[in-house]
Design a protein that fits this description.
Layout: H1 2-14, H2 16-27, H3 34-42, H4 61-70, H5 76-100, H6 105-115, H7 120-126, H8 132-142, H9 148-161, H10 163-177, H11 181-202, H12 210-227, H13 229-237, H14 241-245, H15 252-266, H16 271-278, H17 280-297, E1 300-302, E2 305-307, H18 309-312, E3 321-323, E4 326-328, E5 334-336
Antiparallel strand pairs: 1-2, 3-4, 4-5
Helix pairs in contact: 3-4, 4-5, 5-6, 5-8, 6-17, 8-9, 9-10, 9-11, 10-11, 10-15, 10-17, 13-16, 15-16
Length: 339
């Protein structure tokens, strides 16, 4: 029996996309904001949402893509699924390319398993209907391009996907890498200018902002966090904590990114989603460090043992996610937390 399990582990480690497929079956796909998508895509320059959903106008990228498909023959439901399926495909392509950079095939496979031990995959699959897959894909592409013009475009697109999280990811990346800052700052500025023009000039009326929404829910979110602080820490990096706590050093920049992601996620409705997306630059950096240790030393040092990837890959299936007062787990399992 142990021989069969060892062979199975070795096979999965050679084919990490098989583990991803099993994860999709086990955890499922959750859709969001389908009605709001149809409403905005049908008339992207009209204010047709109630105040408590008007913050969505601050993330217009997918709505304009949806509007394009609506005006080229697709119905609203087909447009919704086409737009977000394309986003997920682009995310996986960009992730594969980003993790393969500078690594051989074995290193890329290790990096895939390590990176997806975080809640990143769970977040992407749980928030179909948001622009998260596009935002993450544009960021991953940003890490690979040397063209300043392309960097500017990708940064602007990230902001158009989500004003606050797009800006936070770019600032986190600058903290960690401190390169291409002119292109990043210019792209960030252009994205913000485009959003200001859209929300303040082109829309029929000025929408309520995410800041207003966050302030109105701040006391509730703080109460939930204060009641379950350890659960929030667990739901931030998830099983990826194994690779975090075994790092010998943590740079001040990495610490600053972690604290910033934690603060932003506490005041948001979607704790794990916001934390994981904002800390993606840190996840990418720590993944490369973990792969180097796995490759050079044959495993991650935990206590007096050194565990190889064959023992660590099942961690990617031990995921939870906090979204407001709910704890999301495997397919269809949602637990409401008390404050």
């Amino acid at each position: 029996m142990s021989h069969i399990l060892r062979r199975l582990s070795e096979y999965v480690c050679r084919h990490p996309w098989l583990a991803i497929a099993v994860f999709v079956v086990a955890y499922g796909i959750r859709t969001n904001d389908e009605v709001e998508f149809r409403t905005i895509s049908a008339a992207p320059f009209g204010m047709n949402l109630p105040p408590d959903h008007q913050f969505l106008y601050g993330s217009p990228f997918t709505f304009f893509v949806g509007s394009y498909y609506l005006h080229h023959g697709l119905d609203d439901r087909a447009s919704y699924f086409v737009v977000h399926l394309l986003g997920v495909v682009l995310f996986f392509v960009a992730l594969r390319k980003a993790l393969a950079r500078g690594l051989d095939d074995e290193g890329r496979r290790l990096a895939t398993i390590v990176m997806l031990s975080s809640p990143l995959l769970f977040v992407v699959l749980s928030w179909i209907g948001k622009s998260d897959a596009y935002l993450l894909a544009f960021f991953l592409l940003l890490t690979m391009t040397a063209s300043a013009a392309t960097q500017v475009i990708l940064c602007a697109l990230m902001v158009l996907c989500h004003r606050e999280m797009g800006a936070a990811v770019l600032v986190a990346y600058l903290f960690l890498k401190r390169r291409s800052w002119r292109a990043i700052v210019l792209g960030l500025a252009l994205g913000e200018i485009a959003l200001l023009a859209y929300t303040r000039v082109l829309l029929s009326s000025v929408p309520e902002s995410r800041i207003t929404y966050a302030v109105s829910h701040a006391s509730m979110m703080w109460s939930i966090f204060w009641s379950h602080p350890l659960l929030h820490l667990l739901a931030s990096f998830g099983p990826f904590w194994v690779y975090v706590v075994t790092r010998k050093t943590l740079t001040p920049a990495a610490g600053a990114v972690f604290v910033a992601a934690l603060v932003l996620s506490i005041v948001s409705q979607d704790f794990t989603r916001v934390f994981v997306i904002v800390s993606t630059p840190l996840l990418l950096e720590m993944t490369r460090e973990a792969v180097a240790e796995l490759t050079q030393r044959g495993g991650i040092a935990i206590g007096g043992y050194r565990l190889g990837i064959q023992a660590l890959w099942p961690l990617m299936f031990v995921q939870v996610q906090l979204a407001g007062p709910k704890l999301l787990w495997a397919r269809g399992v949602d637990i409401v937390l008390g404050s």
